[in-house]
Write a structure and sequence with these properties.
Distance between the termini: 63 Å
Order of helices and strands: HHHEEEHEEEEEHEEHHEEEEH
Shape: globular
Helix content: 10-25%
Number of strands: 14
Length: about 375
């Protein structure tokens, strides 16, 4: 028990990580480069959300059911016996529901923002190896009576170390792209210049990591129609698993982590602990044998990594897929991380990849304010002419 709880406390610390390899490309700038200032992002990750969570009552019920079982199984110290089979079974059910509800909560929020940081390595055998970093920032404000719908979403990938044949072509594994959705459904895309992608010298005071940055230029898809920034339909809890399966393999899916978390027996074991602020922390160890035979999970994994045959693999007795999550009392994500290892073929290369990805969420008015971003966009429109 102590080993598991210790691992949980380390994993939820506000640090970490990212990357699987997706190909990038070099960009030629046909317009004046624009400065994109993100400002002091993600300042309120420790501020309780004021937004309502659509599945709050179901998250509470899942925890209540778990507590009823856990209360009946205590060890000599009076603590919950997390190694008891009945406790593990109840924790697995509750953990799966909490994760699914948190993902589906996002569909009905007025606004939210998350920042992900991923560090990982890929070994392509005789073709070489590489370590890389990937960061993503996703700010979304859905259309309402008071505002238009907006999205500010960038992804930056940087190879930090390489050897063998990858060294000569690492530029093809680096990229930077910003997608800006203005006034509900108009897309303005910016492309980053590979040669200028770099880590800032100082760590972000709240996130605890260095941020990737680059020079940007306006790209194609300028003023074209995008997906509409409106809230998605509410899916009844009993229909969520069916919805996960239906969306698997599509471009925009609701469930996080590329896993059908509600598939039968897909969680091997889990531990749930109560936080002092009323929220909970959860660690889930996924059964990779089950995940690798679950069609929906494989579709999501392969779509995300651009591979037709990749599979999760365990390493040295550890699960090849582990989730650590923190939830606010109403069931919204506060933080989650995904540690995974998979092997397969990417762009003709066979190899294996390890990565850890962390996600921090915020729902505050300050962190979800689009004012500075909209000013940047208007200036870019003027510069482009």
């Amino acid at each position: 028990m102590k080993k598991i709880v210790r691992a949980l406390s380390v994993a939820v610390a506000p640090i970490v990580t990212v990357i699987t390899f997706l190909s990038g490309c070099f960009f030629n700038f046909n317009s004046k480069p624009v400065e994109i200032e993100n400002g002091e992002i993600m300042q309120d990750i420790n501020e309780k959300p004021q937004e309502d969570a659509a599945y709050a009552e179901y998250s509470a019920k899942a925890l209540q059911d778990y507590r009823a079982v856990a209360a009946a199984h205590r060890n000599a110290e009076g603590e919950v016996d997390v190694e008891n089979a009945e406790v593990i079974g109840a924790a697995n059910v509750a953990a799966a529901k909490l994760f699914a509800y948190a993902c589906y909560n996002e569909r009905t929020l007025d606004k939210y923002v998350y920042f992900s940081d991923q560090e990982g390595n890929t070994d392509l055998g005789g073709s070489g190896s590489a370590e890389a970093r990937r960061q993503e920032y996703y700010l979304r404000v859905n259309e309402s009576e008071k505002t238009c719908g907006y999205r500010y979403h960038y992804t930056i990938k940087k190879v930090t170390k390489s050897s063998g044949g990858i060294s000569a072509m690492k530029g093809f594994f680096e990229s930077a792209r910003l997608r800006f959705t203005d006034k509900t459904d108009l897309l303005y895309r910016f492309e980053g210049e590979n040669s200028t992608i770099a880590l800032e010298e100082k760590k972000h005071e709240v996130l605890g990591c260095q941020l990737l940055k680059c020079n940007w230029g306006t790209g194609k898809d300028w003023g074209e129609h995008d997906i509409v920034m409106r809230k998605s339909d509410y899916i009844p809890p009993e229909q969520i698993e069916e919805d996960i399966v239906r969306q698997a393999g599509e471009e925009n899916i609701t469930i996080r982590g590329n896993i059908n978390i509600l598939a039968e027996n897909i969680i091997k074991s889990s531990v749930i602990t109560e936080d002092e602020d009323g929220g909970v922390s959860v660690i889930m160890f996924i059964d990779t044998d089950v995940a690798n035979t679950d069609e929906a999970s494989l579709k999501m994994l392969r779509k995300a990594n651009g591979s037709d045959d990749c599979r999760w693999t365990d390493k040295e007795g550890d699960s090849g897929l582990t989730f650590v999550c923190r939830y606010w009392p109403n069931g919204l994500f506060r933080f989650y991380s995904v540690s995974e290892r998979w092997s397969g073929k990417i762009k003709g290369f066979s190899g294996a990849a390890d990565s850890v990805t962390s996600y921090h969420y915020s729902y505050s008015d300050r962190d979800c304010d689009m004012t500075a971003n909209l000013q940047m966009l208007e200036q870019a429109k003027k510069d482009k002419g």
